Amino acid sequence: MMLLLWQIGLLGILAPKILCLMMRYDGDQVLQIIPQTPEQVHQLQELCEAWPLDLWKPHLPESIYEKAKVHIRVPVSVLQQIKDSLLQNRIPFQVLIKNVKELWDSDTVRNPGKYQFSLSNYNYTRYHPMEDIYQWMNQIKEEYSHLVTQNYLGATYESRPMYFLKISQPSDKPKKIIWMDCGIHAREWISPSFCQWFVKEILKSYQSNPKLSKAIQNIDFYVLPVLNIDGYVYSWTTDRLWRKSRSPHDNGTCYGTDLNRNFNAQWCTVGADSFCSSEAFCGTSPDSEPETKAITSFIESQKSDILCYLSIHSFGQFILIPYGYSVQPASNHDELMKVAETATAALKEKHGTDFEVGPFSTVLYKASGTSQDWVYDLGINLSFTLELRDNGTFAFELPEDQIQSTCEETMAAVMTIIEYVDEKYFKNNAVTVTSSTLWLSILLSASRNTA
Ligand code: 0X9
Ligand code: ZN
Ligand code: ZN
Fold first, then answer.
1. In Å, how far from its chain's centre is CA 178?
2. 158, 188, 201, 387: which is the annotated catalytic residue?
3. What does residue 20 show for φ and ψ, rounded to 5 degrees?
4. Residue ranges for the chain with pLDDT beneath 50
5. Ligand 1 neighbour 372 (Cβ under 6 A)
């Protein structure tokens, strides 16, 4: 009773202040918008005149330019209308601040001017909503501007921008590429977590880890942290177990394509459905989804330089090799098996986790239209799908306290693949570059043998 009275009293004193803040900003969002065409610039300018929007950057509608960032605080009262019209006009946007009030009366009040997390505080052992990941990408590319660029791939169905990070050590030599994508399936949250972990680890150790510092002289890493962004967002806001993208079908009666059935690899022939309500809906044609189209156009344009393709999923604990659509072995089946087995051995060494290796069609089930098979048939013959933890105990809802160990073991596996790719394609190169070290190690091992 005492406590209650005390609380009421306190509330009475503080209420006006809190109310004032809440009424003005609670629910307002700051959107970052990047108009892609002159028409979109114009549409955006008209929105600014027609609605009570608060333009943060630039300060005037006249200063909005094509491909340049625009930051707008949108009052909650008109938020839905504004988002709808951005979607309608296919203008890509992202939510930069999801609740202006929340930020203002928490961290910002105590640390004015510092409303974003800093990279050094980023918690890689938590799952992060999409806004965090966008912000994380921005910070990574700024902090490591000598090594990392952020590259636009295209827009999702709901017009969110898709970016991949390119990690590339400056050099005059032509480079090859290892591609990694995460988050094709929305609910497999550990997957985007691993892509972020991977980037962090590469940036932390590319100078100190000898294998990596050698590989990075020849190979750039292209990392797409979340492929199915709309689905990922939906899994945070509405349905934790959502798998597919979010495009509407059959007059809006059902939603989403399984993006890993939408690639042009024996499309929709096996292990895929042509009706939209299926979890394995293959879409209306190969590449019918903007996300798929964005990836395939890009990979096609770079195919002669991509040496290895890695697609990160969960769960099940497998390293899968082609094919998914057929039990016919891949032409370099033995090589793929060897690489996958070396990787699982390194993985197991970390925390004892057992992985299985083999073609998808034989260790699991058949599926057509997967990214891995499409990439393989394009001629990139080191093509792997990693199905991370666990075995089904927590399945898609892998607890956050397993993120670190899962990422550590997966990193060990991926490192062996990187090393293999580097050795295979840049062997001679390596001997010339490191011949002195090589001779030194031969001498040392000789002396060890005699001792
Ligand atoms: O079925 C899939 O799309 C993947 N498994 S999941 O449980 N994450 O949905 C596996 C795809 C593997 N693809 C090939 N081996 N071709
Ligand atoms: Zn977070
Ligand atoms: Zn998956």
1. 15
2. 387
3. -60, -45
4. 1-23, 104-115, 430-434, 449-451
5. yes
